[in-house]
Amino acid sequence: MKDADDLPEAAPKHFHVCIFGSARIGREHPTYTLVHDLAKEIAKAGLDVVTGGGPGLMEAANKGHHEGRKDNNSHSIGLNIRLPSEQKANAHLDIKKEFSQFSRRLDNFMLLSNVVVVAPGGVGTLLEFLYTWQLIQVKQMENIPIILLGDMWLDFIDWIRVWPLNSRLIGEDDLNPIFFAKTVSDALQVISKAHENFKAGGENFCLSYKGKGKE
Q1: What is the pLDDT of residue 199?
Q2: Is residue 214 assigned to a domain?
Q3: Which of 2, 36, 132, 174 could make an SS bond with 60 (beta carbons 3.0 to 4.6 A apart)?
Q4: How far apart are CA 161 and CA 168, in angstroms?
Q5: pLDDT of 84
Q6: What residues contact 42, with CB distance under 8 A and at least 6 apart?
Q7: Would you give the DSSP letter of residue 25?
Q8: Secondary structure in 3-state letters for 61-102
Q9: Angstrom distance (rounded) from CA 94 to CA 123
Q10: Are residues 147 and 116 in contact, defined by beta-carbon separation less than 8 angstroms?
Q11: Is 135 exposed, middle or buried (0-12, 13-18, 19+ CB in 10 A)?
């Protein structure tokens, strides 16, 4: 495993898929398998994966990435956090960086991310999703896709439309970066299109939300 000093070397040249998700979901859960299989396909495409580096769905992503790699030069990256109830790093990281503050950790996630996948999770996962979304909204980071993975997010998407959107607290364009993915294939379609844009030097990685907005 490389230490934190090697992290910047992975950043400029590689396409990074950041996967957020719960530390509490175990290996027997279908969502663990879903995240594992998605990360495996990401590795086959030669793309990096970035997680919080801990257990649960973070482990699923890093483990799947290791299993999917062949001879490509991709990385399994973990940005771990020191907590009172210690969160140990999982065993499937090529590069690890440890943080004591959530704010600095979040900013490092944003610096690395070309696509963000948000799997089911609790308060921490919601924070990561909403922080990403707000930075895109206020144009403090690239207009990258945010993929909400799994059925958990369907009611949340409906809530956004029924309350903040209908109340004109956000605009329709604010939804453009958000995609729903139920399967590995759904998520990979968005990731692949964003990666093609990245390789072509495109500045606007965002696609569209439910067929609306920019293609």
Answers
A1: 86
A2: no
A3: 36
A4: 10
A5: 83
A6: 17, 49, 64, 65, 68, 188, 191
A7: -
A8: HHHHHHHHCCCCCCCEEEEEECCCCCCCCCCCCCEEEEECCH
A9: 27
A10: yes
A11: middle
pLDDT tens, position by position, 19-55:
999 999 999 999 999 999 999 999 999 999 999 999 9
Please check whether residue 46 lies inside any domain of the structure.
yes
Please determine, for residue 213, whether its predicted confidence score (pLDDT) is greater than 90: no
The tokens of 91 are what? 């065993």
**Cβ atoms of 115 and 145 closer than 8 Å:** yes
| Alpha-carbon separation of residue 2 from 81, 115, 117, 177 (angstroms) | 17, 23, 24, 33
Looking at per-residue pLDDT, the higher value among 207 and 118 belongs to 118
Contacts of 29 (CB under 8 A, 6+ apart): none
Instruction: Return the residue matching tokens 């956090």.
Output: 81
Starting at the earlier edge strand, list the strands of the sheet with 146-149. Answer: 95-99, 76-81, 48-51, 16-20, 115-118, 146-149, 178-181
Share of the chain above pLDDT 70, in %: 87
Residue 207: pLDDT band with limits 50, 70, 90:
very low
Q: Quote the number of domains for the chain.
A: 1
Whether 93 and 52 have beta carbons less than 8 Å apart is answered as no
**15: DSSP letter:** -
Q: Is 211 exposed, middle or buried (0-12, 13-18, 19+ CB in 10 A)?
A: exposed
Domain region containing 142: 4-199
- CATH no. for residue 143? 3.40.50.450
